[in-house]
Amino acid sequence: MSIELITPSAQFVDNVNGFHIMRNLEKCARTCYQSEFKQHTKPTAEFLRGIIKSGHTSVLEHQSVTVDVITSRDVLAEWTRHRIGVGYSVESTRYVNYSKGVEFIIPVEYDKNAKVFPDGKALDIRYKIFQEACETAAYAYNQLIKNGAKPQEARAVLPQALKVNMKVTMNIRAWRHFFELRCASSAHPNIREIAIALLLEFRKKMLPLFEDIEYDKDFYINHKTRIDSIFHVSTKETMQTSNQSVLNLSKDDYEEYMKATEKEKIDKMTAAMELDKDAKDEPEFEQMDLDQLIDMVFGNKVPDKRQLKGQLFEDMEYMESLRDLTEILFDWDRNGGLTL
Fold first, then answer.
1. What is the architecture, at CATH level 2, of domain 2-230?
2. How confident is the model at residue 283, as a pLDDT?
């Protein structure tokens, strides 16, 4: 019987398009105010920040994200305290037979890469005891199985550190609540490290929805190597840009600013689109800059291209490909969103 000691991990089940999530949330939120006709008068990111600041977070329940998590049974017990707006599918110890191999999660307290070890040699002793306890439990489990016990009976000797795989789906409002509680310094360290790792990844995808949530930065710094390795499907980094400051620039400064940054944004979206299996159907987009895309969609109907680009600029940070950009441009055109 093989025994492995591993660290926790997590990943998105499907590709998460943060821009689509935020756009859909804005559409739902504007229903409450019957302001759908105003959807294109400000960046989606700016609108959602206002929604969250006002406390109107019920609209965030319209979109959800699913993650695949490998963690310990003790973290599972704490995580499943979150019930509203949440769905779980969990590896069952009743039916899974661990007699051929079993995995245990190393608690974050035994993180060998931590910058600060409060106990020194005593910590090494405790870790050795932990290892021996896992080995003893695994041996006892295997002996019970060999003597006719079913997995649901033999599982009684397995410790809280037993590895568990689970799929977790939460709506955006539920994720915010989860992060607010589990990223705090008062949360148990084993769930705190996963929560912080997930929060940082969610911010990369849809920063305006999670940027106001605090997390235990001292804990993160101390265990940075371990926490950064939890989410092993890395996503692109996102820079927060103030759309207001862009619009306040002088004409000359604005043009210089856009030239320096616009090409980089378009190049990133073009690169993402080239990975899309359907990108070959839209080759004309690959060589276009933002001015050309606007001209293609609107022709000469744009009264103030500078202002339109300013409104688009922040939302472009969250778009996955040129298809997202052209989608919003065509949507603006269809819905008469050019009352700038």
1. 2-Layer Sandwich (3.30)
2. 43
